[in-house]
Amino acid sequence: MFPTQYIQEVKLTLTRIHMMKFRDREVKFDSPKVMGILNVTPDSFSDGGQFSTVDSAMREAESMVNAGATFIDVGGESTRPGAKAVSLQEELDRVIPVIESISKHLDVVVSVDTSKAQVMTQAVECGAGLINDVRALRSDGALIAAIHAANNFNVSVCLMHMQGEPQNMQHRPRYDGVVGEVISFFEQRIKECTDTGLNYQRILIDPGFGFGKTLDHNYQILKCLHEFNQFDAPLLVGMSRKSMIGELLQRDVNQRLAGNIATATIAALAGVGIIRVHDVNETMDAIKIVNKLQSI
Questions:
Q1: Residue 131: which residues within 8 A CB-CB, separation 6 or more?
Q2: Distance between CA 92 and CA 148 in Å, rounded?
Q3: With contact defined as beta carbons under 8 Å apart, do 158 and 133 qualify?
Q4: Catalytic residue numbers?
Q5: Which of 129, 213, 225, 231 has an alpha carbon within 20 to 30 A of 185's alpha carbon?
Q6: pLDDT tens across 119-156, in order?
Q7: pTM score
């Protein structure tokens, strides 16, 4: 049974309502929104190679929108542990036609999952409304590209925490206190970004489940998700099918749906703004139940 203090904290976080613009679309975070994952890569850990053509990507995007997704996150470079980097041109070739097609044909906010400034710029020019960067705009030129996009296209930006790089991030990650250190990272990085010219009202944050964290680190963050609401910025989380579920439950990647729904439900109770998932339909069901509980 949840302790009374935790229930009271959850209710407080759920009274917070953010309104954020993504190009010409306004999203009200009065309840958690779902972001559907669309990897147009051959080597992503869960769905690599399934959506490598524009037609197959569009079919998946349409299915997720019909299931209730508010966002579609398009990624052209895998960031799984040990993943190899891809060239700029290869990433552009993968994501730009898909972003352009989704933006033209579907009523959804398109997010581009990238750390490359040139990909950010071209993706926004083709219709993306959110830049989702696992490196928190620390790559060369990324911060300037994001500021330009925010100022000229009403685009928002998600800053994610990652210890290390995808190639080495799971090699013995260490923290003195993971929750406190991730919070400190956001304090510093948000200040750096806003000092350079990025509007605070354009920022979302992501604690980076699985990015330079052990199993225990991930669950410590999950337990304390409500603490990240102190930033007064929408919180985006992605735990779908990750090893924090598979390792704990001893389930292969295609057997993690129950774990996905459990972690998504906990995130929804903690007042998270966006839950990034593969299984949109099932996650929407969980969110509807949480919303019903909060309305009584």
A1: 111, 112, 114, 120, 123, 124, 146, 149, 155, 156, 157, 158
A2: 19
A3: yes
A4: 242, 276
A5: 129
A6: 999 999 999 999 999 999 999 999 999 999 999 999 99
A7: 0.90
